[in-house]
């Protein structure tokens, strides 16, 4: 919004405000269950501040005692094994993982603390609504 320099007031509300309804992030997730394993394709589109695209292939066992899931990112040549989220307290979860980048020939580990409280960008409240369009395809808004 730029101020009017000649001392005149704006003629309409359209000149005062600019509302952008384009989402900054769009996540498409496709899931299929195959012999006790959920196979997923995650496609992530980031609109701001720069246009970026990520694709992930996710393999996750469906048994109740599963502890890990496998993620492969073909664009970045990353393979990761992530643990199930481990409750540390009532509102705090820990997730650990080991990964390898084939392009850089590097192996490393990551850990993440997540909570449902906050709003500081690191931890935020995540309210999600799912909409099933047809069997096997749903959209989740967060």
Automatic annotation (TrEMBL):
Q: Which Pfam families match?
A: DUF7781
Alphabetical list of InterPro entries matching this protein: DUF7781 (IPR056683)
Q: Where is the DUF7781 domain?
A: 12-142
Recorded superkingdom:
Eukaryota
Q: Which PANTHER family match?
A: OBP3-RESPONSIVE PROTEIN 4 (ORG4) (PTHR35710)
Name recorded for this polypeptide? DUF7781 domain-containing protein
| Organism from which the protein derives | Lotus japonicus (Lotus corniculatus var. japonicus)
